[in-house]
Amino acid sequence: MHRTYLISIGIAAAFSWASLALVVNKLSPFTTPELSLSLFYVSLFVALVGTLTIVIYYIRAWLNKGEIYNAHLNISLRQAVLLSAMICIGIGFQRLKVLTWWDGLLLLAIVLMIEFYFMSRD
C-alpha cells in the first residue's frame, strides 16, 4: 500500500519539477510578477515536498533496517512539508533581500520546534 503512495508522490513531484521548469523558462517575472512568482513558489513547494518525502521515507526505512511502516510515510510527509516551507520562505526572504544568517537560524529553530512538538505528541 505504501508503494502506491510513493509512486503517486513521485509522479506528482515529477510533474511539479516539470511545471517549475516551465515557469522558469516561459514566464517573465517582469511582465506578470504576481502570476509568475506565485506559480514559481507553488510548484517549487510541491516539487520539494514530493522529492523530500520520498528521500526522507527511504532514509527512515534504511535507518530502521528495512522495516517499513505506514507511519514512516506520514512522518516523512510532515517533515518534507516543514523543510519545503523553510526553503521556500528562505528563498522568499532572499528575493526580498532581507535574508541574513540569523534569520535562517531562526527559521530553522521554528521548524525544529514544530517538529519537536509533533514528535512529543507521538
Descriptive keywords:
single chain; about 120 residues; mainly alpha; 4 helices; about 0% strand
Short description:
By secondary structure, the chain is mainly alpha-helical. It contains four helices and no strands. Helix 1 packs antiparallel against helix 2 and helix 2 runs antiparallel to helix 3.
Verbal overview:
The protein has 122 residues and is mostly helical. The chain has one domain. Helix content is 84%, strand content 0%. The protein is built from 4 helices and no strands. The protein is flat. The model has no long low-confidence stretch (mean pLDDT 91).
Number of strands: 0
How large is the count of helical segments?
4
- Helices and strands, in order, run as HHHH
* Unreliable runs: none
Overall 3D shape = flat
Helical content class = over 70%
Strand coverage percent: under 5%
Number of self-contained structural domains = 1
Rg result = 16 Å
Instruction: Look at the helices and sheets and give the structural class.
Output: mainly alpha
Q: Quick one: biggest sheet? A: none
Mean pLDDT: 91
| Span between termini | 22 Å
